[in-house]
Amino acid sequence: MIWFKDRDNRILRCNRAAAQTLGLRVEDVQGKRAEELYPEEAEAYLKEDREVIESGRPKLGVIEPLALFDGTKRWVQTDRIPHRNAAGEIVGVIVFALDVTERKRAEDVLREGEMTQREFVANVSHEFRTPVAAIKGFAETLRLGGLEDRQNRSRFVRIIENHANRLQWLIEELLTLSSLESGVVKLRLEPIGLADFVLEYAGSVQPLTRRAGVELRWRIPSSLRVLADQGYFLQVLENLIGNAIKYNRKGGWVRIEAARLCGFVELVVRDNGIGISPTHLPRIFDRFYRVNKGAASGATGLGLHIVRKIIEAHGGVIWAESKLGRGSAFRVRLPAFIKAKYNRA
């Protein structure tokens, strides 16, 4: 795009590409003042032009927005060059503008990716640092005489084992996250009877609910089936129900409900526990985000993020509702298994 403007910001000449950005013909642009054609940007452009005219020096490679006639916005790289007459006097400015929108978007994506990567490495390093320091410290204690301390040596070994377990959980979650985010994970989709699946899982966590003093209830129609990967779906249940139990109170309850909704099944895990503050709620599915910074050992802040990735990989959605002090509800929608459609496939 090329414009030739005089000292009064009037466009004397332009090419077709420049006119097209305004949705006009060349003859409709030439002779008009800039503020008539693009009033929102005219003042900023005029300021740039005057700097070039008054200094007599070109201004090259400026990245700036350009509003098109259809309301969209593009990014252009402009070169402003002073134009002189035969006597050497500056009589205007020539503006060359190249559309660099796609390049800028790519650069922004790359910059965001680099920032995300740095944050990810920093978070992983932080998560590894505590258990590694504990293992190293207590191993050194044992080496320097702790093995002879019959009263405490078993406790030291248990601490080392607990922190080693934390490292193992973190590594497993990072590997799961890596496979989900890489897009190469292959789901083994099969029809899962939701009522039987939840019943089997509920039986496995009875010792946990008894210790926590929490009652686990469920109400799921026997006809409901989802199309899901059994291993990944179990991971979703473990996280949502496990959190509902962990962040509850003695005498509390956890309810699991499900219903058919068009081509989906909506599964709801609801509790009357401590709830989540409105400050934290929008971020609970972010990587490494923990509402309770002093969470129990093994809590990495990856669980709900991985759950969301699993649900999205299945073509579903997940969201949370909560009121502080009154409990939370996590809603999951997954594709329903439709027998006729499945048989045809």
Oligomeric assembly = single chain
Strand order of the largest sheet: 2-1-5-4-3
With helices defined by DSSP (H or I, 4 residues minimum), what is the helix count? 11
Strand residues, percent: 25-35%
Distance between the termini: 53 Å
- State the share of residues found in helices, binned by percent: 40-55%
Question: How are helices and strands ordered from N to C?
Answer: EEHHHHEEEHHEHHEEHEEHEEH
> What general form does the structure show?
elongated
State mean pLDDT (0 to 100 scale).
86
Characterize the structure shown:
With about 350 residues, this protein is an alpha+beta fold. Helices cover about 45% and strands about 25% of the residues. The chain has helices at about 15-20, 25-30, 35, 40-55, 100-145, 155-180, 195-205, 205-210, 230-245, 305-315, 340-345, and strands spanning about 1-5, 10-15, 60-65, 75-85, 90-100, 190-195, 215-220, 225-230, 255-260, 265-270, 315-325, 325-335. The strands form three sheets. The protein has a five-stranded antiparallel β-sheet with strand order 2-1-5-4-3, with helices on both faces. A five-stranded mixed β-sheet has the order 7-9-10-12-11, covered by helices on one side. Strands 6-8 form a two-stranded antiparallel sheet. The chain starts with a strand and ends with a helix. About 25% of the residues are buried.
